[in-house]
Amino acid sequence: MTNFGFRFGTYSIAAYVRLFADQLPVFEPYDRIAYTDCDVLFNRDINDLAGQRLRAPLLAAHDDYMYFRPSYRQKLKLAPGAPYFNSGVVVFDMNAVRENALLEQTRKTAIQGKMNDQNALNVAFEGKWQTMHPNWNLQSLGTREFRFSQAWARHFAGGKPWGNQVGVELEALKIWRDLARDTPWGKPFEQRIPFERGVMKRFFRRFDAVTGLFGKDVQRRRAKYDGVKMHLIYARQADEGAMAVQFPEVLGGFA
């Protein structure tokens, strides 16, 4: 990575490994690669994730909640209405990725723009990715409608099971804790308090509509957001093999 010119600063070196999938010899025989962050817990066979039908070089989940802050498009120089995916769960079509040098382009974008891996991927793969079923990247950040038991892959994008544990369902925390037991890493997964953390945070989110009246644009959009509606929209798009939709906030009615 150093030879490519990376200067990581506060970013994790591990986060950039996915950008080198086309450079690592161990992956040369494969035409499909699934990547997940280490804060993802599966309720379904990961082969089902990797084996999905692809129409684009990348399959990824839309729902990173960036549409609450649409200024990211100007910041990253994306097209008007461009969606933004979370890179915590992605599937690469390696034949198309190699043919179009998309990861090479991502690396250059990250270095030249001093970007984190997720921003660089969104720039390089703009218009080249399709919708993943939201159950494959059901994020704990910002959701109150869906729980761990409903996920095919639960992504603890907010609180971590080894950190503050906010938004980590107790049944999921127990799995992490059991997996880590009798290892040197068991202690960070101990349950800190006898109930789930993050309940109050979800409660105060109910007052977003009031906060939005005072010019808080993020809260205003979030108050109009219907998580169940967006989940159904994305699920339908995934079933159809559709490319990522433009202006998702307009589609969802919370622009």
Automatic annotation (TrEMBL):
So which domain of life are we looking at? Bacteria
**What Pfam family is a match, any one?**
Glyco_transf_8
Instruction: List residues traversing the bilayer.
Output: none
Say if the entry is tagged with keyword Kinase. no
Q: Which UniProt keywords apply?
A: Glycosyltransferase, Metal-binding, Transferase
UniProt-recorded name of the protein:
Glycosyltransferase
